[in-house]
Design goal:
binds iron/sulfur cluster, Arc Repressor Mutant, subunit A, 22% strand, binds S-adenosylmethionine, single chain
Length: 384
Amino acid sequence: MSSVDPGFGVYIHWPFCRSKCPYCDFNSHVAAAIDQDRWRAALARELAHFAGDTGARTVTSIFFGGGTPSLMEPETVAGLIAAVGDYWTVADTLEITLEANPTSVEAGRFAAFREAGVNRLSLGVQSLDDDALAFLGREHSAAEARDAITLAAAHFPRFSFDLIYARPGQTARAWRRELAEALDIAGGHLSLYQLTIEPGTAFHLSGVAAADDDRGAALYQAAREMLSAAGLPAYEISNHARPGEECRHNMTTWRGGDYVGIGPGAHGRLTGDGTGATEAVNQTRMPAHWLAAVEARGHGTARRTRLRAGERSDELVMMGLRLAEGIGRERFRRLTGTDIGEAVDGAALERLRDGGFLVADDHGLRVTDTGGLRLNAVLVALLA
Ligand SMILES: C[S@@+](CC[C@H](N)C(=O)[O-])C[C@H]1O[C@@H](n2cnc3c(N)ncnc32)[C@H](O)[C@@H]1O
Ligand code: SF4
């Protein structure tokens, strides 16, 4: 994997959680009982289905996301990792990430996940403040989060944790204090997500308001400055890392690489050997329907569509501009056969460059700090 070769990933979705957080609109469900043996068999079967579909590739990352994959049996995780190795060549530097919640029950299984082959843990800490954790409906305390971080550092060569900011009433001063505490215990990577209020969530229904643009921008800037000064600059809108500690799996997707997505609601991107065309692959969202489909026909694919050239280049621009490195000219050409300059509106590009929102040079296209704050508006103009 390099900035020109984006790598090839495998994403595995575990759709269950112990409870539903009031802000979350991920494909996550609370189930009374989960038949782990049935789920293990179905995930393995769908993985085998895709292995027959991709030809010979070298897997550079596996990502167990959710939902709450730390509720998976470690044997299931081990079995799926082994199956990836049976079906594909794996890179020496294979990154295997698992998302975990920091309750004490799950922390008790960290050693077993490491044993299973996981080499990177991503912890959903969300806050280091007990009142904020209660507001966010989390099942863990700040003390449990700290203990889980200590354990993650002891067991895994690499780990990261997530924080949610721009909560109602959160001041820049309080956010800086929380970040300073986070930096004291962080490894090489932190994900900082601005609270969004998604339709259909409990927060949306009860009228919780998102921060206005000015407060959101002030907190975003405060985080960028502090983390940059601490040696973990932003490499993507919400992600910060020491150089070399970036999440390789997410880099593959943002750089437009192919990935297989298995499990309910997972999506993938697969490029045909002969055609060079990329297909968007979407798995059935509801867990019970996905399970029934896999058991009946070996996979739970709901939709598989070949992306038109314009759709593909638009998505590469949308994902690539999230990254600090931007869109590499050479990579873009390799993935699409066209120059990046032809994929965007030329007049808008010039306007945005003159206004200090974009840099366009020999390397490619990237947003400035000012452009990053208004990424949606920049994209609307470029892709009009
Ligand atoms: C799939 S979830 C996390 C996995 C794990 N179940 C957990 O909660 O710790 C990925 C991350 O997205 C973030 N997230 C989810 N919904 C969000 C929202 N509405 N606003 C901001 N961040 C959100 C949270 O930080 C969460 O850890
Ligand atoms: S934030 Fe994590 S634990 Fe909470 S509902 Fe979403 S996926 Fe589940």
